[in-house]
Amino acid sequence: MANLNIKSKQENTYDAIVIGSGMSGGWAAKELCEKGLKTLVLERGREVKHVQDYPTTNMMPWEFEHRGNIPEAVKKENPVVSRCYAFREDAQHFFVKDTEHPYVQEKPFDWIRGYQTGGKSLLWARQVQRWSDFDFEGPARDGFAVDWPIRYKDIAPWYSHVEKFIGVSGNRDGKPNLPDGEFLPPFELTAGEQYFKDFLRENYPEREIIVARCAHITGNQEFYAKQGRALCQNRTLCQRGCPFGGYFSSNSSTLPWAAKTGNLSMQHHAVVHSIIYDEDKGKATGVRVIDAQTKETTEYYADVIFVNASALNTNLILLNSTSNRFPNGLGNDSGVLGKYVAFHNYRAGISGEYDGLKEFTTEGRRPTSGYFPRFRNVYKQETDFLRGYAAGFSANRSMINDYSGIGDELEKAMTREKYGPWRVGSHMMGETIPKEESQVSLDPNLKDAWGIPQLKISMDYDANDEAMIKDYLEQMTEMFEAAGFTNIRTRDDKRAPGLDIHEMGGARMGKDPKTSVLNEWNQIHSCPNVYVTDGACMTSTSTQNPSLTYMAFAARAVDHAVKNLG
Amino acid sequence: MDRRSAMKQLAVLTGGVIMIPSCDFSEEAILQAYQNLNITASQKALLTRVTNTIFPGTTLKRAEEIQLQDFVLVMCNDCLKENQQQSFVLGLKQWDDFTKQNFGQAFSKMDQNEAADAIRETMSLEAAPESDAALLGRFLAITKQFALQGYLSSEYFMKEIKPYELVPARFFGSKKIENA
Q1: pLDDT at position A6, please?
Q2: Is the ipTM of this complex over 0.90?
Q3: For the Glucose-methanol-choline oxidoreductase C-terminal domain, which residue ranges apply (chain A) (predicted)?
Q4: Shared domain check, A314 and A447
Q5: What is the CATH number of the domain that holds A304?
Q6: Could you give the C-alpha distances from A195 to A168, A390, A391, A487, B174, in angstroms and in order?
């Protein structure tokens, strides 16, 4: 700490510090500021202001030099991020390039990151399905990981709290394994999806297609106008940042709301080195920050600290926060910190065509799709693998042209389009089992540009995942065939873990400090003024997209923290 | 045997043997805008003839009117893997000689019908992968692919022919098609 910047301690003291301004950090900040706490949010990336820092948001397709494609030179230099579906010419500026923050892949892992105000909340797929007790009771019932210290009833009111504020479009489907929430009007299923839904009802009564709940504003305009947000305009260009604030991001919603209270301070380019633990006081007292640009070190102090740096970076910070009391990382008495990480299995998919419903098509664009809630092993164990998978399902019809000719034949063909068949498709979202050998740790030798150890990542698919892929492909093929779909093609793209962008765990919640890092309120067992409410806290992965649950945990934890402040 | 079949046979039998790439002794400057391609202004002009043959402007605008050749070159320069880039550049450099030897006339001297035939026939040749005919086929396939992509996503096409909506503000899942 040669260049320690010694400002007066008072000047750098806040009531609360939040590490990270993404999905869950934005929520922690909003709740803390609303409850009157002077809150400092530390963001390691640059500032991205809502609307004004969305440089591509109103660009037309022809205005992109490569029409959306990423140049080969960029791909060569950044193979990991180039594999992400959303890393395209219109949103590439919101992704971390491979070279910017290196890490060690003990096993292949595509780590997708967004270092800027709002983090990945600018880029997410906006899917917000609630978890249920079929998820929270999973580890205890099926004998893996540890029991979650909470149940659905503990988090349900916080789901509601979050949903009302962010805006969630959806149907009340009445499914016990995908509980209903506070919904704005739903998007429609397409005729093709409705056909498959009806087919299942007749032939597979325990399986159902619903329209996926998504964080888009589709009603209650006056309420959202207070956040400066308007109705979703169906642009489906969300990854560029939305000028209407039609989908939820920290940038459009929680951070400006927090700022309005006057209690928010934001520090950008603030790379957290570690959390400071005071042995005399027996608690954390602040955060050590390295300026990303000047490399200058500054310490900030607060009574309560929220760690929302994104699942794996939160692990990195905790592992790097060593002291005499915690030589192996903050709160790591149990030795489980960094272990039992997991992800979602997105390897498999299926596509086909449907020749019926010729008199129908779709019009406009929809920022969500159909959704197949988990139907495997829900009420009891029924297969040779544990847990199950949810799946996306969509059926769309597009216009087709015959582009095979050249000359006038081609020009005429471009003006002469006809309706093609319905194209149906699905991708799996499998729950994976957190295991001790799946872990992240600090590399003993390699450091990043800020002198912080690089994260070493080691997780992989296992036999359970392979069996689940097989079952997904078999079941989907069977249902597609029975429904009369043709040209059915299955795929297993063998992608590395990480591209699901749903990595979770490492600082899991649990009842027993000997086998978990966090308690039922997301507090570190042995350092309770530090709360972890991002993906790192997850005990198991469920099949549902996890962001909604992180946000609910963040709001719930702030409520707990504020009620327990001296 | 008609000319088309003869051409096909010739290409299959001889592969690249009869094709001798022309040596370029000219001092013509390399276009700096496409640093990975090393092509000259006259090669770009030849490419423009190719894209103008693909989109002659009889029903829609001619390729050149929407600068399609520039887009093809940008994409070849930036978004192609090295081996495809080589196919494109070598093909472009050999295209006039290839057509002269196989169609009796250099491409740049052909009228629209002849030029279109030369492209069609070359693209449909069944040639050994290492042959010049196959190389020229790859050159034309790459050119057509980017020309079509560029055309369909051009301002002209997306405004005047098939208007693109930036802000649809609606979605209907079951819209009845009139006269389905």
Answers
A1: 58
A2: yes
A3: 434-554
A4: yes
A5: 3.50.50.60
A6: 25, 19, 17, 18, 11
Q: Any chain B CB within 8 A of the CB of A171?
A: no
Nearest Cα residue to A338 out of A308, A368, A312: A312
Relative orientation angle of helices B132-152 and B112-124, to the nearest 10 degrees: 110
C-alpha distance from B33 to closest chain A C-alpha (Å): 13
Would an 8 Å CB–CB cutoff place B73 in contact with chain A? Answer: no
Residues of A in contact with B154 (CB under 8 A): 62
> Could you report the per-residue pLDDT of A434-445, keeping only the tens digit for each?
999 999 999 999
In the structure encoding, which two tokens stand for residue A383, read together? 């297969």
In a shared domain, residues A531 and A561: yes
Q: Are residues A10 and A116 in the same domain?
A: yes
Tally of domains within chain A: 2
Does the structure show a pLDDT above 80 at A261?
yes
Q: Mark whether A207 and A311 lie in a shared domain.
A: no
Whether chain A has a CB inside 8 Å of the CB on B129: the answer is: no
Q: Give A-chain residues touching B166 at CB under 8 angstroms.
A: 58, 60, 235, 237
C-alpha–C-alpha distance, residues A278 and A286, integer Å:
9
Q: Are residues A118 and A184 in the same domain?
A: no
What DSSP designation does A70 have? Answer: P
State chain A's maximal CA–CA distance in angstroms: 83
What integer is the mean pLDDT of A357-367? 97
CB A532 within 8 A of CB A561: no
* Sign (positive or negative) of CA dihedral A238, A243, A245, A251: positive
Q: Same domain, yes or no, for A316 and A399? A: no
Q: Is B145 on the interface with A (CB under 8 A)?
A: no
- Structural domain containing residue A287: 1-51+96-169+224-342+435-459+499-566
Give me the phi and psi of A152, to 5 degrees please. -55, -40
Task: For residue A298, give both structure tokens.
Answer: 């500054």
